[in-house]
Amino acid sequence: MVDVQCLVLTEQDKDILRHPLVGGLILFARNYENAQQVAELTKSIREVRADDFLIAVDQEGGRVQRFREEFSSLPPLKTLGDLYSKNSELAGLFAFQHGWLMATEVQSVGVDFSFAPVLDIDCGISDVIGDRSFGGDPDVVSELGKHYISGMRQAGMAATGKHFPGHGAIKEDSHIACPVDDRSLDQLLNNDIKPFSDTMRDGLDAVMPSHVIYPEIDERPAGFSTVWIQDILRARLGFDGVVFSDDLGMEGASFAGAYADRAKAALRAGCDMVLACNNRSGVENILDNLAVAENTVSQNRLQRMKAKNLYQREVMQENVHWREAVKTIQQLTG
């Protein structure tokens, strides 16, 4: 999964999108001007590639919301966790509406899915998680995560839980550092992993592992570890969904070497698709040095990430549920 720099595709972008190793594209705030423009961009992407091509975005809400103008202002997930302590039933309803509204609006401009929800536990330590999490109680994160995912799925969007097995207990940001979490597997299973395992039982579609090293379990970051992906995630937890790497350009991935080496290591560990963003030379390094190989298991998994309902935006705005969801979210944002 690659990225592009501008509001429209360049000829170089089109050449990269046509490469047989490229199966998806992630959009950022720099690719967004307004709803019509980004809808035209996604249309142009699909004119270059067939319908099986995936288009994604990070549209969590709060400080991680790439599409803002003409989109609902989504509150951070912590707002739902705070509400849960006062009214758990209402918080569950609002979590459903948050997930449904996010998914519906994203799909209305031709995007298949958002990398959401964050299922990390907020331990009051992390510089990068914080209010992106539902909160600090694994049971609350599990419950609200289930409601949120249910809303996404009713809207026709597959859900991606991140950042397995948990990034919330480490201060350092893996975008700019190589974080280490010294806890044992039992400690992680009873705390950070619980929201992932609970939502997996309800059909979580995909997982994004963290670029965090857990030395009690393996010397490699989770996204590059066969122990984490094959032994724990697949075998022990029984997960059969998609595994996306986190961005290979992050500092937490640098231990593996050049971009092509990072991609090879992540795929070898068991990732179905790797993300290479914000570094065109790094993307080219991967495309020049990674062999094209058919992996029907991964390809079948990835097809589950296609949007089920690419709404027309005008039709969406006439939808009674959309209007109700907008009002609900406005209550959360004050």
Automatic annotation (TrEMBL):
Q: A GO CC term? A: cytoplasm
Q: Cite the position(s) of the site with description Important for catalytic activity.
A: D173
One example of the protein's molecular function in GO is: beta-N-acetylhexosaminidase activity
| One Pfam family from the record | Glyco_hydro_3
Entry keyword annotation includes Cytoplasm: yes
Q: Name one GO biological process term.
A: cell division
Catalytic reaction annotation: Hydrolysis of terminal non-reducing N-acetyl-D-hexosamine residues in N-acetyl-beta-D-hexosaminides
Q: Give the EC number.
A: 3.2.1.52
| Location(s), subcellular | Cytoplasm
* Pathway where it operates: Cell wall biogenesis; peptidoglycan recycling
Q: Which residues of this UniProt protein bind substrate?
A: D58, R66, R132, K162, H163
Q: Where is the Glycoside hydrolase family 3 N-terminal domain?
A: 10-300
**Catalytic site:** H175, D246
The UniProt entry, under InterPro entries, shows: Beta_hexosaminidase_bac (IPR022956), GH (IPR017853), Glyco_hydro_3_AS (IPR019800), Glyco_hydro_3_N (IPR001764), Glyco_hydro_3_N_sf (IPR036962), NagZ_Beta-hexosaminidase (IPR050226)
Q: Return the SUPFAM superfamilies for the record.
A: (Trans)glycosidases
Tell me the domain of life. Bacteria
For this UniProt record, the keywords arranged alphabetically read as follows: Cell cycle, Cell division, Cell shape, Cell wall biogenesis/degradation, Cytoplasm, Glycosidase, Hydrolase, Peptidoglycan synthesis
Q: Which family does it belong to?
A: Belongs to the glycosyl hydrolase 3 family. NagZ subfamily.
User: What is the purpose of this protein?
Assistant: Plays a role in peptidoglycan recycling by cleaving the terminal beta-1,4-linked N-acetylglucosamine (GlcNAc) from peptide-linked peptidoglycan fragments, giving rise to free GlcNAc, anhydro-N-acetylmuramic acid and anhydro-N-acetylmuramic acid-linked peptides.
The protein's name is: Beta-hexosaminidase
